[in-house]
Design a protein that fits this description.
The chain is of the alpha/beta class and about 250 residues long. Helices cover about 20% and strands about 30% of the residues. The strands form three sheets. The chain has a seven-stranded mixed sheet, sandwiched between helices. The protein has a three-stranded antiparallel sheet with strand order 1-2-3. Helix 2 links the parallel strand 4 and strand 5. The radius of gyration is 17 Å and the shape is globular.
C-alpha cells in the first residue's frame, strides 16, 4: 500500500490489517482492526497536534508524558518533527494497543520511551474494558453488554502516582509536555486532588470531550495555565495550554 503526496506516509502491507508507515525516518506499526489509522497514523499525517509544536521547548531533549497514547502517534509525530526525548512515558489501557505502542516506542526511541499498560483516572483501583484490538474511542466509562469472558481488567492509576513513579517527586523536576486524550476521564483526573504534578508541567495539550467544558477550562486555568491559540486552530476539542510559572524558552 503506497500513498503519495508530501503530507502522507509510505505504507507497506504486512497482512490484512497490519501496516507499517514511515515518515521522516519514523516507522509506525498500525493495525486497521484497532482503528490505528484514525489514531497513530492521523497524528502523523495531520496537524491536530503539530500546529502547536512551535510553542514547545526547543533547546533540549523533552520529558514527555502521554496519557491515552494509543499506538504512540503523538510521540512519533514529535520525533518526526525533529524533537528528541530524555524520557517519554506513554500510557495506554488496551492491552493489544499497548503491544503496538511498545513496539513503536522501542523501535523509534529505544532507551527513552516507556509504555505503561494502565488507565489514568482520579482514583486508584481497576476497570473492566472490552478485550478487543483497540480503538480510538476506548474509554473507562464504556458500558459493556458482552459476556464476562470478553472483558479484561486493567489497573487505574492517578496522575500524581504516574508522574511520581516515572519522573520522581521533586517539584523542581519539570515535565516539558503532557498530552491527555482519555475519552472523558480528563474530567475526573483534573477535578480531583490527584493532579498536583501538573503544576510542574510546562505544556499541556488536551482533548476535551463532551461534558462541562467551560468548568474544566476554568479548572485548568486555576492550576496556572493559559491557553495557546494556534494559527489554524479549529473547534475539534483539542486545546493547548502553557504554564504561566514555567515559561517556555524558544
Amino acid at each position: 500500500m503506497v500513498e503519495t503526496g508530501s503530507d502522507f506516509l509510505s505504507g507497506d502491507l504486512i497482512s490484512a490489517s497490519l501496516i507499517v508507515y514511515r515518515k521522516n525516518g519514523i516507522t509506525a506499526l498500525v493495525d486497521l482492526r484497532g482503528d490505528d489509522q484514525n489514531g497513530t497514523r492521523m497524528c502523523l499525517v495531520s496537524d491536530m497536534y503539530s500546529k502547536w509544536f512551535s510553542h514547545f521547548p526547543q533547546q533540549c531533549p523533552l520529558k514527555v508524558l502521554d496519557l491515552g497514547a494509543n499506538g504512540g502517534g503523538f510521540s512519533l509525530s514529535l520525533l518526526a518533527a525533529g524533537f528528541s526525548f530524555s524520557k517519554c512515558v506513554c500510557v495506554e489501557m488496551n492491552p493489544n494497543t499497548y503491544i503496538r505502542l511498545q513496539f513503536n516506542l522501542n523501535y523509534n526511541c529505544p532507551g527513552t520511551g516507556t509504555a505503561v499498560n494502565a488507565a489514568v483516572a482520579g482514583r486508584n483501583g481497576s476497570v473492566s474494558i472490552m478485550k478487543n484490538q483497540g480503538g480510538t474511542s476506548d474509554s473507562i466509562y464504556l458500558k459493556h453488554l458482552d459476556a464476562e469472558k470478553s472483558l479484561v481488567e486493567v489497573p487505574l492509576i492517578t496522575f500524581d502516582e504516574l508522574a511520581g513513579s516515572y519522573f520522581g517527586t521533586d517539584k523542581n523536576t519539570i515535565i516539558d509536555v503532557c498530552k491527555i486524550d482519555v475519552e472523558g476521564a480528563e474530567y475526573e483526573i483534573l477535578h480531583s486532588d490527584t493532579c498536583q504534578s501538573l503544576l510542574r508541567t510546562k505544556i499541556l495539550i488536551i482533548e476535551i470531550h463532551d461534558g462541562d467544558r467551560a468548568k474544566l477550562m476554568e479548572r485548568i486555568c486555576s492550576l496556572g495555565f493559559c491557553e495557546i491559540f494556534a494559527e489554524k486552530q479549529i473547534n475539534d476539542g483539542v486545546h493547548c495550554f502553557e504554564n504561566k510559572e514555567l515559561k517556555v524558552q524558544k
